[in-house]
Design brief:
By secondary structure, the protein is an alpha+beta fold. The protein has 14 helices and 21 strands. Helix 2 packs antiparallel against helix 12.
Length: about 500
C-alpha cells in the first residue's frame, strides 16, 4: 500500500515532530490545527510548513513531519522547499517594479521594448504586448512535454528561439493555455530591454529578483536555485510514491533557464512575508515599498477565463488567469488570488483574500502528482470553510479523492510486472522531444528526458510509470504507418522515434 507504507514508515517520527512543531494554536485556531494535523497523518505526508497570515500579523504557523526521510530531521520555519510555479507571481512582481520605474509599460508592444523579439507569426511579433506574455492567452501553444515535464534544461538562447517556432493554436485573448515558454520570455524581458546579453540573462534575472523583490519584500533567505544542496543548510528533500517501495525520495528536477516560471527556493517565513506584502499592496512588513499598489494589483486582475469544475470549488462563481496568479470570485463577494506550484517531489500553495485580509502558505515535500496536491487543497478548503463559510464539506471530499487516487495506484502497482526485454527491444532509442527509451543493466525499462528518469513496468499490453514525476502515467508503444516506433505518454504527449536503436539497450 502506497499510503500505508508512508504512514507506517513515519509513524514514530510523526508523533515526535507533531508534538515539537511550532504552532500558534490558541483557542481560535485549535480546531483548524487539529484538522490539518490529522489530515497530514492520514494522507501519509512526509513534511509540511504552513502559515495563515494577515497583512500585519502571522495568525497561525505550523511545521509538520520531516524534511528528509533518511535523516529524520524535522521541518522548521527555515526549511527551504522548491516552490515551483508560485515563482510566476514573483516574476510578475519583478516586472511591476520595472513598470513603476518607467522602463516598461504593460500595454507596450514587446518588440518596442526588445527589438529582437520574435513570435511565431509576423502579426504576433508586432502586436503582442508586455501584459500578454504573462496572461496565458497569447494563442501560442507549447508541446505538452515541456509543461508536463517541467521543461528540462535548455539555455536562455534556446528558449528565446523556441518561442518563435511554437504552434499558434487560436487567436489571442480567446482561450486559456498554460504556456511556460511564453511566460519565461516575459520574465527575461525587462533585462533584455536593458541590453543584457542573452548568455547573461539567467544570472541577471537572479540578481534582479534578489535586489528588487526578495530583499525588499522581507525574503532575505529566498533565492533562485533548482537544487538546494550546497546552497542552504536547512532544506527539504522531495518525495513521491514508487510501486513496491511506498514513499521514496525524488531527485531534484532540472529547470535549466526556465527559472522565471519556477525557480525559487524559499522557506515558510519568507513565503509568509511575501503573501503579507501582497496583502499590504506592495509594502513589506518592515515598511519597504516593493512595488506600487497600482501595478501590483494589476498582476491580480483576471485576464482570461478558466473553467472550474463545480465539484472542486462549489462556491466559486468565476475564475480567471491573471499574471502569475489565478483570481477566483466566490459567492458573498469574496475573492481569492492564488497560485500553486509543483515539481519533482514538491507541491506548494500560496493565496490571499485581499478584501478579507487573509492569506495562506502551504509548502510540502511531497508531490506534485498524484498525491501532493491533495493536502494543500484540504488545508485551503478547511480555511475557507472555517473562516468564511465557503466550500462547506469540501475538506472531506478532498480527502476522499485522495483515498481514491491511492487505491488506484495500489491497484496498478499490484497488476504491474517487470518488462520483457525482448518485447520492448524494437522500441528502444531516441524520440522526439528529447525522450530516450532504454533498458538499464538490470533489464528495467526507463524513459528519460533531460535529467528525469521515468521507470516503467508492464501492464497488460501497455506500460505504466511506477515512480518519478507522474506515477501511474500510462505509456503505450506502437508502430506508425511507416513502421517507425511511436511512444504515447497518455494525456501528455505522443512522440516518434528519431534514430535507431543506437546503444540504448
Amino acid at each position: 500500500m502506497l499510503k500505508g507504507a508512508a504512514a507506517a514508515g513515519l509513524a514514530s517520527q510523526l508523533g515526535l515532530w507533531l508534538s515539537r512543531a511550532e504552532a500558534s494554536t490558541g483557542d481560535d485556531w485549535t480546531a483548524f490545527d487539529q484538522a490539518i494535523s490529522g489530515a497530514f497523518e492520514r494522507m501519509g505526508m512526509v513534511g509540511s510548513a504552513l502559515a495563515v497570515v494577515r497583512a500585519d500579523e502571522v495568525l497561525y504557523q505550523r511545521t509538520l513531519g520531516v524534511r528528509d526521510l533518511a535523516s529524520g530531521a524535522p521541518v522548521t520555519p527555515d526549511t527551504h522547499f522548491l516552490v515551483a510555479s508560485t515563482t510566476k507571481s514573483m516574476t510578475s512582481a519583478l516586472v511591476a517594479t520595472y513598470v513603476d520605474s518607467g522602463a516598461l509599460a504593460w500595454e507596450q508592444p514587446v518588440v518596442d521594448a526588445w527589438p529582437k523579439f520574435r513570435a511565431p507569426t509576423d502579426e504576433l511579433t508586432r502586436s503582442l504586448r508586455v501584459i500578454d506574455l504573462f496572461c496565458m492567452a497569447t494563442g501560442i501553444g507549447e508541446p505538452a512535454s515541456i509543461s508536463a515535464f517541467a521543461q528540462g534544461d535548455p539555455t536562455t538562447g534556446q528558449i528565446l528561439d523556441l518561442l518563435a517556432i511554437l504552434p499558434v493554436d487560436h487567436a489571442p485573448n480567446e482561450q486559456f493555455f498554460y504556456n511556460n515558454t511564453v511566460y519565461t520570455v516575459g520574465g527575461y524581458l525587462p533585462l533584455l530591454a536593458q541590453g543584457v546579453e542573452v548568455e547573461d540573462l539567467a544570472a541577471a534575472y537572479a540578481e534582479a529578483m534578489r535586489e528588487r523583490v526578495f530583499r525588499p519584500a522581507g525574503m532575505a533567505r529566498t533565492l533562485i536555485a533548482a537544487d538546494p544542496r550546497g546552497v542552504v543548510e536547512d532544506y527539504a528533500t522531495g518525495n513521491g510514491p514508487a510501486f513496491g517501495q511506498g514513499i521514496v525520495a525524488q531527485p531534484y528536477g532540472p529547470l535549466g533557464s526556465f527559472t522565471p516560471v519556477g525557480g525559487a527556493l524559499s522557506n515558510l517565513e519568507d513565503m509568509s512575508a511575501y503573501v503579507q506584502m501582497q496583502l499590504r499592496r506592495g509594502v513589506s512588513v518592515d515598511g519597504t515599498r516593493v512595488a506600487s499598489a497600482a501595478n501590483l494589483e494589476e498582476t491580480w486582475k483576471g485576464h482570461v477565463a478558466i473553467d472550474l469544475p463545480p465539484d472542486v470549488d462549489p462556491d466559486a462563481t468565476s475564475a480567471s488567469y491573471a499574471r502569475g496568479w489565478i483570481a477566483v470570485d466566490y459567492r458573498g463577494g469574496h475573492e481569492l488570488i492564488w497560485h500553486n506550484g509543483g515539481i519533482d517531489g514538491f507541491s506548494t500553495f500560496i493565496g490571499f483574500l485581499p478584501d478579507d485580509d487573509l492569506g495562506l502558505v502551504v509548502l510540502n515535500d511531497m508531490g506534485p502528482e498524484p498525491l501532493g496536491l491533495y493536502y494543500y487543497q484540504y488545508v485551503l478548503n478547511t480555511l475557507l470553510e472555517s473562516r468564511l463559510g465557503l466550500n462547506a464539506g469540501m475538506p472531506s471530499k478532498v480527502e476522499a479523492a485522495y483515498e481514491a487516487v491511492v487505491a488506484s495506484l495500489d491497484e496498478l502497482a499490484a497488476e504491474a510486472v517487470p518488462v520483457d526485454p525482448d518485447v520492448v527491444a524494437p522500441y528502444l532509442g531516441h524520440y522526439q522531444g528529447g525522450f530516450t527509451v532504454a533498458l538499464d543493466p538490470a533489464g528495467a525499462l526507463h524513459v528519460r528526458k533531460g535529467g528525469r528518469v521515468i521507470p516503467l513496468l508492464a501492464l497488460g499490453d501497455d506500460y505504466v510509470a511506477s515512480g518519478g514525476l507522474i506515477p501511474g502515467l500510462s505509456v503505450r508503444f506502437s508502430l506508425d504507418a511507416d513502421e517507425v516506433p511511436r511512444m504515447e505518454l497518455v494525456g501528455v504527449d505522443s512522440v516518434r522515434r528519431t534514430t535507431g536503436l543506437d546503444d540504448a539497450r
